Structures are given as C-alpha cells and as structure tokens.
C-alpha cells in the first residue's frame, strides 16, 4: 500500500528545513526580528525558539544593516547564520552589508575566507500592505556577483532550496513569496537538497515556453491549462534559481518551442525577465525564435494599496493567457 | 557601568499646561483623543467586517502622546509619523472621514486609496505622512526642519517614532545631524515597551530611549505618556526651544499599546495582567477626570463631546463607504509629477 | 569670425550646472561628504562653498542613509537638494530612503506631494579602488518606478542633464563616470537643458547599432572607427537616460541596422543591456533582426584591485570590435 | 544642555603596562610601531614611483593606537580594520612583504592582488580585513564576537574605527547589539579629529566619541592615542573584561593623522601649525624615550631594532616587486568557493 504523501505548507517546509539543519549542524543558527516567541511575522520560524533555545533563534533589535553585518561577521568566523528579514523591502537598509561585504569579501581577500550565510526575504504583493511592504527586489541581487539567489514556488523546493542554501559555502539569498506561505504540497520528510542553479520544467509543451518565478509559476500553470483547451501547448519552466541561471534548460526549451514568454512579479523594466529574454536573444536559440520574446512583469509604479489596483499591478492569469495566445498566433 | 534609569517625571501640583491652553483648546484636545479612540475602534470593526484590506496598527492607549504633542504645535508646524500613525494624523487635525476613505481604498482618501493605513498623510495640516519603514521618518523630519531654516520659517517639526525605531541606524544619523545643525525638530519617542514582540529590555542596551540623547547633546525629558498634561508640558518646552532656534529636543513618552502589534498578533510575548494594568491607566479617562476635577469641563460637556464624536465617526464611515474606488485605468497616475 | 568653442571638463560642466542652478533658484542647495572646503572627493563641487556659502553647500557627517533622508525631507518641504554621494557604492547604505521613500512618496500619497531632489553618484571602475569603490549600480535604480536615471557621457550632457535633473519635480539619479571627470569637451556657457528620456545617436551607421552608456560610449565610438576601416558601419547610440528609456530611438535604429550590440560597464547579468536587449526582442524591431542580440557588460565578479584584472573585468575597445564583427559576419 | 567634555586621562606615575608586558613584548611593540612607520613611508614612495595603483590611506602618527591595542590581544583574537588599516595589520602580526605584494597587485599579496590597500587582511593572524566602507567593520566585529560565544571560545574581537565612522548608523546598531548581548568586542575609536576634511566639531554633536558610549551602556575610556602605554592600558582593561564575559567596551584614542586623508588631499581644511604641533607629539619618539628612560631598552637595542626594520622593509619591497602578477585568466577565481 502506498504511504499517503505528506503535505506541508510552504511556511512549514521552510521551518522544517531550518529545524533539520539546526539538528544536523551546531553551527547553524537563526536570527531576525520577532522570529522567537512571535514565531516570525509570517509564522515561518514558529516554535523553533522553544525547540532550539534563544541562543540559536535570536530576536534582533530592529536594525537590518547591523543584523546583516552580524551575520557576515559570524559567517566569516565559522558560524552559519540564517537571517530572516521581516519583509524583503527592508533589505534596502542592508544592501551595504549584503552587496559590499557578504558578496565580495571572499573575492577581495583572494579566497582566504568564505561567507556561508543565508538571508530569507518574504517578498511580493497581494497582501494589501502597499508600496513599502510589497516589493519584489530579487533582480537587484541577481545582478550581484558573489551572491546566489533562489526563489522557490512550492513547499518541496522551499525546503530543498533552503537546505542547499544553508549547506552552501557562499551567501545565498532566498526569496519567499508571501502569498505562497499557506499553500500546501508534498514535502519529503527527510532532509534533501534541491540544487541551486537548476530550473525545473513543470509542464512540457510544444508551442511556447513560459519562464516564471515564485507565484507566477502557479499562474503560468493555470494559464497553460486554459491555453491547452485552446489548442496551445505551453511549456512552463519554474526558474527557481536567479543566480546562477540555468542557461541550458532555458536555451534547450526555447529551441524546441520557438517562443518565449517571461512572467515575473518584479517591476517589468530590469526584472528577471529582462535577463531571461536577453540570454535567449543572444543564444543559439535566437535563430529558432518564431516570435518576439514576450514579457509580463510588474507595472511601472509602486504597489498601490487599493486591492483592485494592486491586482492590476502584477501579472494575472488572463494576462498570461492573452500574451501567450498573441505570441503563438503571431499577433504581437 | 550601569546607568541609573532616568526616572519618569512626577507631578506635584496643577499642571502649568492647564493654564497655558485655553478651555476651548483643552476641550479640543479631549475631543481629538476621543476621536482617535473611536476611529481606531471603528477601523477595527471595519477590518473585521472585511471593509479594510491589509493590516493596520492601532494606537489605542497612546492617545495622550499623539494629542499632547500636537497640542503644542501650530497648524503650519509639521509632523512625521509612523506605521502606528492614525492618532498622530487626527492629533494634527485630519478629517476621520477622509482617513476612513483611505483605509477603504477610496478615491476620497487622503492618498486617493493608494497609500492605506501605513501611508496616511495630510499634508495640508502639516502631516508629512506615516511611514511603513521603522525609523524612516526620522531623517525626513530633519530634512523638513532644514528646509524650514532655509526658507527662514520658524515652523517646528515633530517627529514621532517608537522605542523599536531607536535601534535603527537612521535614529542615530538623524539625531546627530539635527543636533549638529541645531534644527527645530522635536523627537517624540512613543515608548510603548515593545517593538512588535520584542520588549525594550530585549532590544535596547539602555533602560530609556532618552538615555541616548546625551550622546547627541540633545536635551531630553521622560514623561508619563498616558498623561496629556505631562506630554503637552514637555512638548511645549521642546517646541518653544525649537521655534526659538535652540535646536532639537527629545521627549520620551512612556506608554503602552493595548491592542496587538497588528492584526496578526497573538500577544504571546506579554501577559494579560500587564495589559490590564495598563488599561487601568487609560489616558482618556484620566484626562477627562482631570478636566472635570479642575472644573474646566462639565459632565454635560463631556457627554456632548462624546456624542459628537460618535456621530462624526459614523458619518465618516458612511462617507468612506460611499466614496468611489480609484479607476484601474489610473494605475500609473502620480508615479511622476508630469 | 567664429567664437572659439569653450571647452570644459566633465567635472567643471557639472560644477557650472550647480552654480547656475543655485544662482537662478534660492531653493537649490548642495549636500554631501566633503563637498565644501575639500571641494568633493573628485573635485566636482570645487570652490562652490566659497561662492555660495556653507548654508548652501553643506558638508554632511558620514551618514549616507540619514543624508538621503534629509534630502527627501527637504525636498518634500519645498527645497531642492542636490546630494552628492562620495562613491556610488555608498548608495547601498541609502537604498531605503531612495527607493522606499523618495521614489514612492508621491505615489503613496496619491499625488499630494512631490520630491524634487537630485542625487549624484560617481561610479565605475578603472581607478584601482577595488571592489567597494568601483561598482556601476545604475541598473538597480532603473528598476525602480518613481525614479529617473541619467548617465551623461560628455561634458555637454553632464551640464544639460544635471540642469534638467534639478528642474525636475521628481527624484533624479545622476550617474557620473569617474574616468570621465577630467575629459574635456565643448560646453555652452549659458544654462541649457538636455532632455531626460532622450538617447542620442552619436554616430550614424547602417550595419549594426551599438547602444552604450557613460564611458562605453567613447569606447564604442573608438571601436566604430576601427570597424569602419574594416568596412563595417556602426551606429552608436548614447543611451543617456536609463529610466525612462528612449524606446523610439532604439527601435528605430535597430529596425534600420538589423543588428544590436549593448555595451555597458555594470555587471552583465541584469545590467542595463539586459533591458535594452529585451526591449528590442519584444518590439517591432524583432522581425528585422539579422543576428542575435549581443551584449558586453561587466564581468561576473567583484572589481579586482590589480590593474590588469580590473581592465579585463569591463569591456574594452577590442572586445567591442570583436563582438561587433562577429555579429555582422554572422559568426556569433 | 552641553555635556562637559570628558577629559583625556592623565598619567601620574610609571604606567602599569610596563610591568604587565615583558621587556621582549615591549621591544616587539616598538618594533611594530617602527615597522608601520617605515611601511607607510615605503608605500608612499612606491606610490610615487608608480608601483602602486589606486589610492591609499596612511596611518603615520597613529602607530600607538594600532600597536597598543594589538599588544593586549592574543594571536587567536580577532580584529576588524578600516580603510586606514596598514597599522592594524602590522600590529596584529602581518608580514610587510606580503602586504607590499598586495599593494603591488601581486599573487603573493595577502589577497592575491585582488584587494589592495583597502581590503588588506591577514586571516591567519586574526585580521578579518580592512574595509572600504566607513563603519562597515563595526557590525562584522559584533558578528565575529557572536560566533566566538557560539563556539564557546573566549577570543576577543577588537574593532577599529574612526571618528567619522561614529556618525554612521552602523555604529549605533553594532554597539547596541554588542552591549545587549554582552559580546566580547572592544570598540577602538581612532579619533584623529577628522573624517577626510570634516573635523569632529563639524560632524559630531558631542565632543568625544566616548560621550556616545553611555547611550549603549558601554564603559568607555578616552586616552592619549599617541601614547602606547595609555592605549595598551585601556586596551588590556577592555580585553580582560571582554574575555571574562563582561561585554563590550569602548576605547577612544585621541590621535592625529600626519599625512593627508588619501593621496589626493590638499590639506585645505587644517593648518600647518596644527600638523606641526601634532608631529611634535610623535608616538614612536615618545614610546622609545620612555623605554630608554625606564631602562627597558638601551640605545644600542633601539639602533639594532631600527636597522632590522629598515632591512625588513627593503626586503619586503623587493619580494613584492619580484612576486608574479595574477593571471588574467583567473579573473573569476574566488567569486564563489566552488
Ligand atoms: C525597517 C523596518 N523593519 C521592520 C519593520 C517591521 N515592523 C513594523 S512595526 C515594527 C515594530 C516597531 O516598533 P516601535 O518602533 O517600538 O513602534 P510600535 O510598533 O511599538 O509603535 C516592526 C518590527 C518595518 N516596518 N520596518
Ligand atoms: C560609507 C562610506 N562613506 C564614505 C566613504 C569615503 N571615505 C573614506 S574614508 C572617509 C573618512 C573617514 O573618517 P574616519 O572614520 O574618521 O577615519 P579616518 O580616515 O580619519 O581614519 C570617508 C568619508 C567611505 N569609504 N565609506
Ligand atoms: Mg514600541
Ligand atoms: Mg578620522
């Protein structure tokens, strides 16, 4: 008889990854604002402070720059910090330590050290939290050599990518989508690693490739189902890793389908889709392209508070369907 | 070396502020405190009824600091506010109807429905805006004060912030610059003992935010933040100093937030006893009692005032419900000025 | 008789713009680290403190986040700050105020206010200052709605764009290239405005379009001269404005030349060339393309100290020549 | 409210430090101070000769603070350093030859030629690195100390920073966390009166960086930063406290940089008189005189020591010149660990 598949929410999967990493390795510890007794603003750390104690689940003062620097210093000296930002928007306070220090120290020191830290960023819109609590800034980090950037779309990848990130000898930025925290999916109970740098084809198709990230993966899959009814067979790739990019998977897919649509929540201009598009446009897949490369990204405005405006500011399923259709039918 | 905890000032006789402010002004202050309380309760109910989207941070229990500080300000003076900013906004004279409209995401809201609770502002009344970023308003207040100096205006800027915000680097940089340049800023710390779940003991290496003021050469007072009179007295001193060119001051208001941090708080970091003890020190009850005792208001005045506030809140909610939503076609409006 | 054309250096042109703006408008003032008696780390503010006084040329403490916030507050209240960062790398400390506040306040407040400020960022490598003093982070800012981003390549545009930026009612980020400060060129003496949002074709050509920014404009022009000797006629576009982008000029040029090469100093992945490439790949110019879209950007590493490594980390003239040749000859 | 300026400690009798440190240790301290001076002069000349690319920040005149602090540290203790970090590096035991190699951009440099002056580090000797970002090292030091606690090590972290750095938010956040968590950090402010061209009077709202320590409940001492003995005495007290679990301390060393801020400084913000007055207080001359006076060293010892330093510097420069440059093919090496 089959074991019933165990399902966890995305938040629970992240929590399980941290718990397993802390069990396996004394050097791993968590830090962040209100991650202890409060359990994290989104409940991700939950009761870990009760299980691992306040020395390993450290509530920090509200001091993002300092906390990031503390993580860098601890990592330099052999500890393995996992730092939670309460919202990814607050990374703006810590870019100095992330970009000038964490990302560069190893290189600047000619390889004498490494900086094994993980930072976790709850990101994205859809919660009515307005412009300063809804951004998707992952593209900034993907622009920075020395960092790795991952963005899971499922509970399974959330756990596997976080475990890989904690193992990694270099700084890894994990972008989590707030609207996904409560979504459930199968998660193997044992510790396992999802490789950093590998995209995943979530649906194979022949007519076009849709490359999506985070919650857009789900919207792309929904769109693909609608398109299928329409006779359009979309391949959906979950990018998962924004730095390094899985060039091979992307080029191979587009070479087969001959059309590309990038769907992402970050602002359209210079969001991750810009890089995917450019990567294909300069690749051997270019000659195979039968249509311009489509992009759907966040609107060119701060995220508005009003819910209808907020929805209109990021790609939705009908937008994906329409754009995919236009690409396939040559009406772009 | 442990510093002695600076004591909260204690009051000996009839607060001087009751002579500095006219009866009408004191009545207005009480009215605004009621308005804040009712506004917060109205917003809470509206949230429960699904009329409000997102989250919000209620200031129930902190009305005295908001209104006490604003009582010392002139209309043209400015404030910068925080994520817990409804009280500051009403304290500075905003219309609750337009605030509700904002929270309901409507076009008549102060931000045309684009900002919501965390960005509520009322620039016409001098409220430069709430801020979703803890500590975000501190340097902005300093810049506003710099602009006043440049424009040869004597308007003062009151900068509200929390105990938690005082751990941000922005606090340090802002206070240093304000003091260095002797700008007219009053830094008002609403120390409600917690930044979200984290008590000041677990986030600050000193007992009082005011203990940090000496590090900037800024005069500081610690007052009972639940006493309108004590807050207003310290605020007047600081505002007078600022207006006279004497530079910045810090006023630390010891207070307490009665509700959870935001809508998702399970209050696991504090005890019911603590919440009850602070509820018993309600700033509105206390202010009202003092005004009655001193004969500044009569029981009838208070009843009338409360009824007027009830009506204003109900009308405000109705106004907000009837206000039109923004048009989706105007998504990109106001990204730029042109 | 012709007047001899007056030449100024890029730094002098910037200084003249600030002086003219301050003369014309009392609200304009300068702030930054060591911009007074020191005259700025790169000498851009020079003796302006002597001419305008310490109240209008304000030396700030070393406090980038606070200074940016002060600029925001002053701008909100009717002053017109021009804030110099000593190196653009230090913007990492001020992203909160720039991105969460300056860029968004007008929108968040439904248009009730505007934030007329200018920030000036000395950027780029080539000075032996290593990884924390050599970055080209302009693409981050171009990803942020609410900001305008300009990057002059000549003294003339440096002055004209800075004057436009100071006039502008919204926050404008001016990226200056350190290696250009001493380069000279003609600069009209009267105040004039170079429009924000307009690219400039610096050389017309038929065989490919090279879109370049800042110092890369000069390298692209040098490369074009070499290519011309080779029978390849390159059009060189100086992008000048990274947000908003001059879509029309770009699409029109590529439609004519049928080939595109983007050259920029920022890190290749998600640098401005990614957006230019994507913009063309999704545009009506896509169908005209006769070759994959080429990109030359900064290497995927922090900027190294050693001068040979440093040179190797950013595009040089021979790289541009080689890449352009390959695109035109179809050997990409 | 103006705070009384805390006074620099004055010395009454033979410094206790001359008993705590052995003659050999004192001799080694003097040697390192000479080594720093000669290193800086050698680097300056090499720069003039075009052997060094970029800029550099010389610490001539500040040798006592670097060596005085490091004298209180064990080899396994850590330091974080600054853009003006050559002295710290040598103070903690680095080899000048490998430092020159780094400045010349060579493969034998401490950073294989990738870092240069602003990123000089010597991790084996506990120097976690200079930092091009003013204030960048402060929170890193706190994190290093946190790691020591987690790993149950009693190693101390000395964190060097300048007066200018104390105006950065990072200073505030770092000191608060270090104090809150009682971590073993010694914050060493080298107050050389200027951040680039900006005097402390024009950048700080208090007279001393140490005046800020009370705002974090951190014990502080202000010492004559040009006196090895005074610096070492304060450093030992702070290091002992940190090692014993007593938490962080701040030591403010009043000193002066004799050279310009960097290679491009025209010194327009200070007077020749001021520079000369400070030159007359040379920390090396002074330390040497004390050691001679107390009979710890003889004139012959000093001559021998200086000659050895001269030789070491000359050999270091020769080594660096002969070291191979990095290969351009290795541009991407060490971006990541794999
Ligand atoms: C920079 C930043 N960090 C964290 C948060 C999340 N957050 C919002 S309010 C808050 C607590 C703030 O505490 P305090 O300043 O004391 O204000 P209070 O909520 O008590 O009024 C936190 C951590 C934020 N909004 N901004
Ligand atoms: C964040 C940051 N801002 C500005 C600079 C430019 N800068 C380098 S050193 C320096 C002065 C630092 O002063 P201080 O901390 O007193 O150290 P000192 O140079 O006097 O040793 C400045 C402004 C920088 N490197 N980093
Ligand atoms: Mg609080
Ligand atoms: Mg200094």
What portion of the residues of chain B fall into strands of 2 or more residues? 5-15%
Mean pLDDT of chain A: 98
Give the overall shape of chain A. Answer: globular
| Computed Rg of chain B | 19 Å
Please write the CATH class name of the largest domain in chain A: Alpha Beta
Q: How many beta-strand elements of chain B? A: 7
SSE arrangement of chain A, N to C: EHEHEHEHHEHEHEEEEHEEHEHEHH
Order of strands, main sheet of chain B, comes to 1-2-3-7-6
What is the average of the pLDDT values of chain B?
A: 96
Give helix % range of chain A: 25-40%
What's the total helix number of chain A? 12
What is the name of the CATH architecture of the largest domain in chain A? 3-Layer(aba) Sandwich
Give the N-to-C terminal Cα separation of chain B.
Answer: 57 Å
Task: Give an account of the 3D structure.
The complex is a heterotetramer, with 2 copies of chain A (332 residues) and 2 copies of chain B (338 residues). With 332 residues, chain A is α/β, with parallel strands linked by helices. Helices cover 36% and strands 19% of the residues of chain A. Chain A has helices at 10-24, 48-52, 64-76, 95-102, 105-108, 138-142, 155-167, 215-229, 247-257, 272-281, 307-312, 317-329; strands spanning 7-9, 28-32, 57-59, 80-84, 118-123, 148-150, 172-177, 184-186, 200-203, 208-212, 234-238, 241-243, 260-267, 294-298. Chain A has a 7-stranded mixed beta sheet with strand order 3-2-4-5-7-6-12, with helices on both faces. In chain A, α2 (48-52) links the parallel β2 and β3. The termini of chain A are far apart. By secondary structure, chain B is an alpha/beta fold. Chain B is globular and about 50 Å long. In chain B, the strands form 2 sheets. Chain B has a 5-stranded parallel beta sheet, sandwiched between helices. Chain B has a two-stranded antiparallel sheet with strand order 4-5. The chains are: A alpha/beta (332), B alpha/beta (338). Chains A and C meet through α4, α6 and α10 of A and α4, α6 and α10 of C. Bound molecules: thiamine diphosphate (2 copies) and magnesium ion (2 copies).
